[in-house]
UniProtKB/TrEMBL annotation:
HAMAP family: MurC
Species in which this protein is naturally found: Streptomyces demainii
Annotated family: Belongs to the MurCDEF family.
Residues reported to bind ATP: G119, T120, H121, G122, K123, T124, T125
Taxon lineage: Bacteria, Bacillati, Actinomycetota, Actinomycetes, Kitasatosporales
SUPFAM superfamilies recorded: MurCD N-terminal domain, MurD-like peptide ligases, catalytic domain, MurD-like peptide ligases, peptide-binding domain
Function field: Cell wall formation.
Superkingdom of origin organism: Bacteria
Bilayer-crossing regions: none
Alphabetical UniProt keywords: ATP-binding, Cell cycle, Cell division, Cell shape, Cell wall biogenesis/degradation, Cytoplasm, Ligase, Nucleotide-binding, Peptidoglycan synthesis
EC number assigned by the record: 6.3.2.8
Mur ligase central domain residues: 117-302
Name by which UniProt lists this protein: UDP-N-acetylmuramate--L-alanine ligase
Signal peptide residue numbers: none
GO molecular function: UDP-N-acetylmuramate-L-alanine ligase activity
Length: 473
């Protein structure tokens, strides 16, 4: 049964505008796996577009009115699609239903036992940990993730099991469309400044999300994060969902007793509340950093809330080896490791730098950072710069605009000046093509280089490796 507002056959022949995007492609993949005749368009070719074609989707490059087949039953869009997009305008002219990505995802989750993962940071990692570990246990979940897993190598999958794991995106309030059996809230911070003017608006939005949890369901939420604790206070009591907390706080239902780093892995020990069996469990997290260890504990708690035995799920979590762009090793050349990080919010930047610092040994940590969005840089540029001071040296690129138009006076200088004020060794570089040569001149054997940001800075990793490997380096 389709959610209210979507005809039952609307997703039989859907056309996705911007089908190659991380969020859009996941929904398209699952629909294709379920037998829908999927088509779409994107501005450029990519491995994601190739994967969709292998699933039988028709993908056009560029946007044109004739990309919409005569029998198109709906046009699926995200909030990033502008109102004047030619295909969107054509759909409205022809009376083709326009469906938001979140409504399509809600329709996919209907009839399953959904786990929706929300929070300002860590959604992709936690969703991925659940997807991989539940598959390892043979539960064959469906999932839609905002990134590609290292294994099994896809951002989405249609499984035969009853569990459906999905990221729940707060950026445009689209997570209000979901009705999960278990909701995870990892943290609550002010972000997405184009859509939220204050923390109160953020809390209200998360309260609406929590209010969508199905009767008898559970909210899994951090006991440590200040914003999460405030949200817990706002939703506790009355006829709300069962609340299960996790973290290092002494009162947490799943209490973290120890996180012991071992190179680029961690060993985590937790104690479950009596209501969850009261066991003490130690397990391995195969990615570095305390924040990833805590994401794994959130996944463990959510699984327990859904009835998956924690003693089974804990060792299965070790089978998660990472997500593309989440501290992903791109390669090593001339003794220098090049790692890619999606971090773009100050909290994420600091967490990833602290995690990498733990695995760097005597080497230095060098960062190529690309601020993402004018609105975010305007609000958080100072904090971004402060976080970059954790690196030994940083190169800062111009702002990646994504969907935004420039804002007068808002440039990467906001980040650079703040980093310098906090004692950072920071260099401005306006020419992306100059970065590989610049890094090759800075890096020494044993150093770690991070390409960091949510934009196209990720493309520089292979170029830096190639330059490091070249004879003149």
């Amino acid at each position: 049964m389709a959610p209210a507002g979507i005809a039952s056959d609307a997703l039989d022949r859907p056309h996705f505008i911007g089908i190659g995007g991380a969020g859009m492609s996941g929904v398209a993949k699952v629909l294709a796996m379920r037998g829908a005749r999927v088509s779409g368009s994107d501005s450029k070719d990519s491995p994601i577009v190739g994967a969709l074609r292998e699933l039988g989707a028709t993908v056009h490059l560029g946007h044109a009115a004739d990309h919409l087949a005569p029998d198109t039953t709906s046009v699926v869009v995200s909030s990033a699609i502008r109102a004047d997009n030619l295909e969107l305008v054509t759909a409205r002219e022809r009376g083709i239903p326009v469906v938001h990505r979140s409504d399509a995802l809600a329709a996919l989750m209907d009839g399953s036992r959904p786990i929706a993962v929300a929070g300002t940071h860590g959604k992709t990692t936690t969703t991925s940990m659940l997807a991989v570990s539940l598959r390892t246990l043979g539960l064959d979940p469906s999932y839609v993730i905002g990134g590609d897993l290292d294994a099994p190598g896809s951002s989405a999958r249609h499984g035969d099991g009853e569990i459906f794991v999905a990221e729940a995106d707060e950026s445009d309030r689209s997570f209000h469309k979901y009705a999960p059996e278990v909701a995870i809230v990892l943290n609550v911070e002010l972000d997405h400044h184009a859509n939220y003017a204050s923390m109160d608006e953020i809390y209200e939005s998360f309260q609406t999300f929590v209010g969508r949890i199905r009767p008898g369901g559970a909210l899994v939420i951090s006991a440590d994060h200040p914003g999460a604790r405030e949200l817990t206070a706002r939703v506790t009591g009355g006829e709300g969902p069962r609340v299960l907390t996790y973290g290092e706080d002494a009162g947490a239902d799943v209490r973290v007793l120890a996180i012991e780093p071992h190179g680029l892995t961690s060993e985590v020990t937790v104690r479950l509340a009596e209501s969850l069996g009261g066991a003490e469990i130690t397990f391995t997290v195969s990615v570095p950093g305390r924040h990833y260890a805590l994401n794994a504990v959130a996944a463990l708690t959510a699984g327990a809330a859904l009835g998956v035995p924690a003693r089974d799920l804990a060792p299965a979590l070790a089978s998660y080896t990472g997500v593309k762009r989440r501290l992903q090793l791109k390669g090593t050349a001339a003794g220098v490791q090049v790692i890619d990080s999606y971090a773009h919010h100050p909290t994420e930047i600091a967490a990833d730098l602290e995690a990498i610092r733990g695995g760097a040994g005597e080497g230095r940590v060098l960062v190529v950072f690309q601020p993402h969005l004018f609105s975010r840089t305007q609000e958080l540029g100072t904090e971004m710069g402060q976080a970059l001071a954790l690196a030994d040296a940083s190169v800062v690129l111009d702002i990646y605009p994504a969907r935004e138009d420039p804002v007068p006076g808002v440039t990467s200088a906001l980040v650079i000046d703040a980093a310098a004020r906090h004692g950072a060794d920071v260099t401005a570089e306006h020419d992306r093509s100059a970065v590989p040569e610049l890094i090759a001149g800075m890096a020494k054997p044993g150093d770690l280089v991070l390409t960091m940001g949510a934009g196209d800075v990720t493309d520089l990793g292979p170029e830096i490796l190639a330059r490091l490997q070249s004879p003149e380096s």
